[in-house]
Amino acid sequence: MAVRSESSREAILRATIDLLGDQPPGPVSLQKLSIEGIARQAGVSKMTIYRWWPSKAAVVIDSFLDNHVAQTPVEDTGSPLETLRQHMASLASVYAGPEGRLVAQLIAECQFDPATLQEFKQRFWQGRREAVTQLIERAMREGDLRSDVEPDEVAEALYAPIYFRLLFQTGPLDAESTERLVDVALAGFGPNAAPRVIGKSKSERPQARPRSARKSA
C-alpha cells in the first residue's frame, strides 16, 4: 500500500508540473489550474490529492520544490562568494525557462492568499535564507564582506535583481547578465565600501575611496 501511495503522490506532482508547463497537456495558468484537472491528469481521485495537500497552492508548491531545489543548489565550493555566485547563476538559468513563469505566478498568488504566502515562505525561502546567510556570515568573518550590515540585507540585495527581472522582464537572465548583477550587489558590501552610517547627513558620511585609489593601495 505504501508503494502504491507514493506512486500516486509522484503522479500528482508530475501531473501538476505537466499542466503548468509549456508542452501539452499544458500550458494551464495557475489561476485556471484545478484539483479536478490535476486528478484527471494523474489518474487519481480528488480525495487522494486532499489526503496529502490541503489546497491547490500546496500541491503546486510541492511540485515546484520537487525539482527546483535540486536544480539550484547552495553547495559550498570553499569560497563563500564563489558559492553565492554559482547559486545565483543557477537560479537565474532556471528562472529563464518555464519554471520562472511558474514562480512568477506563485508570487502573484501570494499577494492574494496569505496562506499561500506563509507556506511559500516557510517551505521555500526560509531554507534558502539559512543556507545563504551562513555563507554571507562566513564571508564577513573572512573579511570578504563588510561586517556592519545584516546578512539578511545582503541576501535580499543578491536575490532582488533576479526576481525583479523575472517579474518585470527588464533584461535577460543569462549567465553574463547575472554575473554583472551579482558583482554590483556584492560591490556595495565589499570591505572597501563606505561604512554604514545612521543618523548623519550625507555630507557628514565617510566617502568610499575611488576605484583608482583602491587599486593603488
From TrEMBL:
GO molecular function, one term: DNA-binding transcription factor activity
Region (Disordered): 195-217
Domain HTH tetR-type: 6-71
DNA-binding region: 34-53
InterPro entries documented for this protein: Homeodomain-like_sf, HTH-type_TetR-like_transc_reg, HTH_TetR, Tet_transcr_reg_TetR-rel_C_sf, TetR_C
Pfam families hit by this protein: TetR_C_11, TetR_N
Domain of life (superkingdom): Bacteria
Keyword tags: DNA-binding, Transcription, Transcription regulation
Cited PANTHER family: HTH-TYPE TRANSCRIPTIONAL REGULATOR RUTR, TETR-FAMILY TRANSCRIPTIONAL REGULATOR
Name used for this protein in its record: TetR family transcriptional regulator
Gene source species: Phytohabitans rumicis
